[in-house]
Structures are given as C-alpha cells and as structure tokens.
C-alpha cells in the first residue's frame, strides 16, 4: 500500500466532518466530482470502505471513524511543523496566545502587564478554536473556558463561576431567581440544540459561521434563542432587554490556561505562572 498524502487526508476530513460531499467541496473550494473520485481512490488504496453514502447523508464506517481521528492528528502535526519552523525564523520571538474575545474574565490586561518574558501576540477565534490552535502550532498557550476536549493539552485552572442563562427580559423565566434546566424546554441555544440539554458551549467548525456577541445578544433580546454563558461574561455585558439568571443543573464554568502537552518552553511556563498568580490575586 502506498503512503497517504496530506491532500487525501484533507479531502477525507472535510467530507467526514461535513457529512456531505457538496458542502465538503465548497469548503475545499473545488468541484464535487473530483472530490468524490478522490475519496473512492482513497478507499481502494486502503482496501476498506470509509463512508456509507446515501442520497441524503454520508456516515462513517468504523474504519472511517478511525481514519478521521488519526487524520486530524496528522494534519495538525504537519501544520504545526510549518508554523513552528516559520516562527523559529523570526528575528523577534513572540508568545502566541489564543483566546475568545471577552472570555478572559478581565484578567488579560493584568496578565499582559505582569508578563515580561516575550512580546505576546493575540490570536482571537470563536469557541472551540483555541485547542485546535494549540494542536496545529498556531498558538503556544491559550485562555479558554470549560468544557473543551483536553486531549493533547495540559491545563491550569484560573477561576470558576456558575453558568448563567441569558433570557429576554420579558420571558416569564426572567422573574425567577434561579432557573432549572427542565424549565428551558422549548427554547433553543445559538447552535440550534434544545436548551434543556444543558450544553454550555456552542460547537464550532470551519464550515459554520460563528455568531459574535452582538449578534447573540440581539437574538436573545427578540426571543429567538437563549444562551448559556459564564458569570464573568454576563457581568461585563449588562443589557436592559436581557436578564441573566443562574441555572440549577448547569455545570460551573472554569477559565483555564492551556498549553500543548509536552511543551518545554520557558516562555510558556512563565506565562502560566503569571496567569495563575494574577487569578489568585483577583479572587
């Protein structure tokens, strides 16, 4: 069997994540027929069936699930090699910090003031993108709230607060001091999932447009959605047409500092120490 190429892995990951050849082709900026041929060629090369195709959807076989997990790791490793090589050639080294805007609990300015090891570059992204940036080498360290997939990263907790729900001020539940998860039945989160399931973070993929905070707040105000968010975000954004209420049954949210497992960077270690010290002083 010949060795797999990164191009083949990228094609397969796109189809596996989108569960649709048309959307995967659009994501890859290519036509659908050559993408379909490339996947069939990959299956012949491996001698196994990776996908089950129907007129409505694409599902993964056990072999496809295995390849998807390994392909993501392999593509991240290739991307990380390139990012780190380019950055190693920079005349002025920097520390790349990944985070979602407004999710730093107000700690970021104090951390940056106290951290003097390297200049810090901020890599802003949507929910879920910070861990991926650590995996593929775009970031050295990240600030991110739970929950997230901890595979491949080490973490240190900074602070923990209750999860809140953002409701229209006119919603009957806004009159409650505390809202219970079952009482949110019939309401939807920004990603379309039922609110009573208690998910505290929106999923994100390269093919799905992530709503920014102003868009989410506008949708909450008009009653289209409700939204789970950390207490520290709610405190930073008081709005007259939105009520924030603690939710019984919703997991607390922890802000963490995270870095790639196995990192031996003194600059990363210094940042983690600084962030931990600032967070302890803020409690």
Number of domain modules: 3
Question: On the 0-100 scale, what is the average pLDDT?
Answer: 87
For the biggest sheet, the summary is: 5 strands, mixed
Order of helical and strand elements = HHHEEHEHEHEEEEHEHEEH
Q: What would you say this structure looks like, in words?
A:
There is one protein chain. The protein is of the alpha/beta class. The protein has three domains: 6-84, Arc Repressor Mutant, subunit A; 93-148 and 262-282, Periplasmic binding protein-like II (D-Maltodextrin-Binding Protein, domain 2), CATH 3.40.190; 163-251, D-Maltodextrin-Binding Protein, domain 2 (3-Layer(aba) Sandwich). It has nine helices and eleven strands. The protein has helices spanning 6-18, 21-28, 32-46, 62-88, 108-114, 129-135, 213-221, 231-236, 266-282; strands at 51-53, 58-60, 95-99, 120-124, 141-145, 153-161, 163-168, 179-180, 227-230, 242-248, 253-260. Strands 4-3-5-11-6 form a five-stranded mixed sheet, with helices on both faces. A four-stranded mixed sheet has the order 8-10-7-9. It has a two-stranded antiparallel sheet with strand order 1-2. Strand 3, helix 5 and strand 4 (120-124) form a beta-alpha-beta unit. Helix 1 (6-18) packs across helix 2, helix 1 (6-18) crosses helix 4 and helix 5 (108-114) crosses helix 9. The longest helix is centred in the first third of the chain and has 27 residues, at 62-88. It starts with 5 loop residues before the first helix and ends with a helix. Mean pLDDT is 87; it is low at 201-209.
């Amino acid at each position: 069997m010949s060795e797999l190429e990164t191009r083949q892995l990228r094609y397969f990951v796109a189809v596996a994540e989108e569960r649709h050849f048309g959307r995967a082709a659009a994501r890859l900026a290519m036509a659908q027929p050559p993408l379909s041929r490339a996947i069939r060629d990959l299956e012949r090369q491996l001698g196994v069936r990776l996908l089950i195709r129907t007129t409505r959807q694409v599902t993964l076989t056990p072999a496809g699930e295995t390849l998807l997990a390994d392909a993501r790791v392999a593509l991240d490793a290739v991307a990380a090699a390139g990012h780190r090589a380019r950055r190693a050639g920079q005349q002025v080294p920097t520390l790349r910090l990944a985070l979602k805007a407004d999710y730093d609990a107000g700690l970021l300015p104090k951390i940056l003031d106290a951290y003097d090891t390297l200049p810090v570059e901020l890599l802003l992204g949507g929910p879920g993108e910070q861990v991926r940036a650590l995996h593929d080498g775009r970031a050295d360290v990240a600030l991110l709230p739970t929950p997230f997939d901890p595979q491949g990263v080490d973490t240190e907790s900074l602070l923990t607060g209750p999860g809140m729900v953002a409701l229209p001020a006119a919603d009957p539940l806004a009159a409650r001091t505390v809202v219970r998860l079952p009482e949110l039945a019939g309401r939807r989160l920004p990603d379309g999932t039922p609110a009573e399931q208690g998910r505290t973070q929106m999923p994100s993929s390269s093919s799905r447009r992530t709503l920014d905070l102003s868009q989410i707040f506008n949708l909450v105000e008009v009653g289209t959605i409700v939204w789970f968010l950390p207490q520290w975000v709610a405190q930073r954004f008081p709005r007259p047409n939105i009520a924030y209420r603690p939710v019984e049954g919703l997991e607390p949210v922890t802000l963490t500092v995270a870095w790639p497992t196995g990192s031996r960077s003194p600059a990363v270690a210094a940042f983690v120490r600084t962030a931990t010290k600032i967070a302890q002083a803020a409690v």
